[in-house]
Amino acid sequence: MSDLNAAMLDMMIDMGRRARAAAESLRATTPDARTEALHRLAEALRAAEADILSANARDVARARDAGLSEALIDRLALTPARVEGMAAAVEAIAAQPDPVGGEIARWTPANGLDIARVRTPIGVLAVIYESRPNVTADAAALCLRSGNAAILRCGSDCLESSRAIAAVVRSAVAEAGLPVDAIQLVPVPDRAAVGAILAGLDGAVDLIIPRGGKSLVARVQAEAKAPVLGHLEGLCHTYLDAGADLDVARRVTLNAKMRRVSVCGATETLLVDRAAAERLLPAVAADLTAAGCELRGDAEARALVPGMTEATEADWTTEYLAPILSVRVVGGVDGALDHIRRYGSGHTEAIVTTDEKAAGRFAEGVDSAIVLINASTQFADGGEFGFGGEIGISTSKLHARGPVGAEQLTTYKYVVRGEGQTRP
Amino acid sequence: MSDLNAAMLDMMIDMGRRARAAAESLRATTPDARTEALHRLAEALRAAEADILSANARDVARARDAGLSEALIDRLALTPARVEGMAAAVEAIAAQPDPVGGEIARWTPANGLDIARVRTPIGVLAVIYESRPNVTADAAALCLRSGNAAILRCGSDCLESSRAIAAVVRSAVAEAGLPVDAIQLVPVPDRAAVGAILAGLDGAVDLIIPRGGKSLVARVQAEAKAPVLGHLEGLCHTYLDAGADLDVARRVTLNAKMRRVSVCGATETLLVDRAAAERLLPAVAADLTAAGCELRGDAEARALVPGMTEATEADWTTEYLAPILSVRVVGGVDGALDHIRRYGSGHTEAIVTTDEKAAGRFAEGVDSAIVLINASTQFADGGEFGFGGEIGISTSKLHARGPVGAEQLTTYKYVVRGEGQTRP
Questions:
Q1: Which parts of the sequence belong to the Aldehyde dehydrogenase domain (chains A, B) (predicted)?
Q2: What average pLDDT does the segment A201-215 reach?
Q3: Residues 330-369, chain A: which have Cβ within 8 Å of B?
Q4: Does the beta-carbon distance from B371 to A412 stay under 8 Å?
């Protein structure tokens, strides 16, 4: 190992140790103290707007020099409105009920013990993300709300912005009397830091959360020695059932695809019930085309919508994140379920129908984190679910599925009260 | 790869495929059908007693020939009473509320969507265990109750017994109209089967549950490509606080250590508050010694209990699973928490005290799956918790902690009902 790598590893291990100690101290803080820290943080972000924007301007300038695409620069760039958005998100998280200490269940079995299942923080979370600097504030706020310490590792593109935001976070945390190392940002762009985190920092990391593109998440899932809560991709489907109302089908499909094409909850494949394709598809397709969406269909869809290009097998497996939609005609709910089972990523699927039975069979048969009935797949979002914010959408089946807010960043323990009982 | 290994891998991949298909079919079964299958299974186990015992006799004879210890043979050996115990456990699990489809939460955020968080099966579970043949029936029953398909891999010692039990399970499942491949047992003792499971069977395994000794669990956690729910060990502590009632301290400690020394919930280290050591320790130690327990103490403990041998650093880190107890005098709740933080395994800890404040600080400060107040650590058990049975005690922090019953073998999805909502 080179000296540089050894020094990096030492720094990361030390960061892990400090995070563990901070997690222990956080355990003794009150919900009110954590709420107070979040309010201070929101105010401090507003007060530090100029510093944050000037750090961000340096990141953006470097990104332009490096020839990054405008789409990436748009993810990276902050504006006064975006800084205000960060502060407002922190306030929304502050307004969430504090999950720690909440009783999930309580009962007394035959042995007379009083058993309570109580929410507790997980401990130390490592969040690995890419070029959106607002994640620094969002992740910090969600970790504070849930009583966890966090090690944040941002992409090198947004390092200066994230440092400026992390400095604001840490002073707000310290001023509120919480342990300053509750939130730590890896201060250097070295890639070895990610390797160190994946190796678990000597057992100091309880959970790794990758938030970013497919290759980042895949690397984390393949290499991590600690548990991972990640989303792989959002290959979301909207299914128009024979029982669909035409108006609902038109506006839900248009929104599900085109509201924002780059989010993981955007619909990538439209499935249409053969029994109603003639009634539904032409109007739905016309709306999409008028909005600038390219349609790629199977033979039956193309027969109904002239000018649609031909879909290949690859279209069913592609998360476009672009104004492109694949379209397939299927045999009712069962046909839709077959397609989703084969090609879906377990993220979010929607059915449009007025037929309660069809809706029920679809909701039961789809094994995805989120199933929507008569609503847009773009609602797959922690804010829309009422969580105040989210650290991502989990497509893991274990621990938490769907939007991951503060509550999903907790675990539980059993507190069992007896009166001297011994086990027979 | 040798031909043998290739054939084994093919068999295992095929098993994974059939498990996945069975999991899909199970999704469409009703709670009543699953309850019916469990009742049939309990009856069928009783009816097959002779077959099961004769298969078990062959396992036991082979184990004796191989020179296995009497302790291991005791784990392996079945008797009519133990077969009845298996049947009774299946009935207790049948009597549990079926978790699948249960609504965990339901709310309507500002967007007007009706959001329900609904319990669903995880999918395909792989259970890897060692020489206790009753696990074959327990694991099958818990997986059926929770709507999961299971691939069971028993230790080679109990293969004939497990095959006999698995045959009973599969006919009961088929007779109840459930997919027969819902429960599959790896029919050969080949170790390559474990490797294939750890590699994830081409994505067919959603969760791996190792149930057995430390080395098995450690291997699974190190190598598994699918999520793992395991317990590493139970290094459980009982802490006698200054506020302890002497009688409760005596009977809880004796039970916590000596009821059964080989279970993971057995206490391995006794911590005694300095402020009350003189009052509590001599009597507690006398009870333990009289029951045949060896005591290994620090200097302060030895000063109070002549004849106690000297504890070394290794004693604080050893899960004895034997009639040996390490004893340390500590400075109150904080001293106990420090010791547990440093040496505990996150399984189960108990405090004996009548002081509510001390109990509260202990319960809050201990980051273990189970914290007991005035009760024996040996209550760490799914049956005692009212779960009907358990597949083990999880010391993982993610997904499920403590006893893992049918409910802990489920995940959830969101079923979201709208009226044509689109996202602004």
A1: 17-289
A2: 89
A3: 341, 359, 363-369
A4: no
Rounded Cα distance between B128 and B392, Å, is: 11
Calculate how close chain A gets to B346, using CA atoms only, in Å. 10
Shortest distance between the Cα of B374 and any Cα of chain A, in A, equals 5
CA–CA gap between residue A280 and residue B278 (Å, rounded): 83
In chain A, how long is the greatest CA-to-CA distance?
78
Among partner residues B110, B123, B378, which is closest to A423 by beta-carbon distance? B378
Which domains are assigned to chain A?
A: 3-232 (3.40.605.10), 236-380 (3.40.309.10)
DSSP B60-117: HHHHHHTT--HHHHHHH---HHHHHHHHHHHHHHHTSPP-TT-EEEEE--TT--EEEE
pLDDT, mean of residues B378-405: 93
B327: its two tokens: 């004893």
Q: Is the Cβ–Cβ distance between A136 and A153 less than 8 Å?
A: no
Q: Please report the pLDDT score of residue A312 as a whole number.
A: 97
State the best of A416, A417, A419 to mutate against chain B, taking most chain B CBs within 10 Å: A416
Considering only the beta carbons, identify the residue of A110, A372, A420 that sits closest to B252. Answer: A420
Total-model pTM:
0.93
Residue with tokens 């506006």: A251
A227 touches chain B (CB under 8 A): yes
Specify the DSSP class assigned to residue A397: S
Reported confidence tier of residue A57, pLDDT bands at 50, 70, 90: very high
Give the whole-angstrom CA distance, residue B384 versus residue A201.
Answer: 37
Closest partner residue to A27 (CB to CB) among B24, B365, B417 is B365
Strand, helix or coil at A412? strand
Mutate to test the interface with B, among A229, A259, A415, A419 (most CBs of B within 10 A): A415
Minimal-distance CA residue of chain A relative to B21: A341
Taking the CA of residue A373 and the nearest CA in chain B, the distance in Å comes to: 5
Q: Whole-angstrom Cα distance, residue B172 to residue A101? A: 43
- Strand ranges, E, within B203-263: 207-211, 236-240
Distance (Å, whole) CA A28 – CA A24: 7
What is the ipTM metric for this complex? 0.93
Q: What is the pLDDT of residue B4?
A: 63
**The amino acid at B251:** R
Indicate left, alpha or beta for B81 from its phi (over 0: left) and psi (-120 to 50: alpha). Answer: alpha
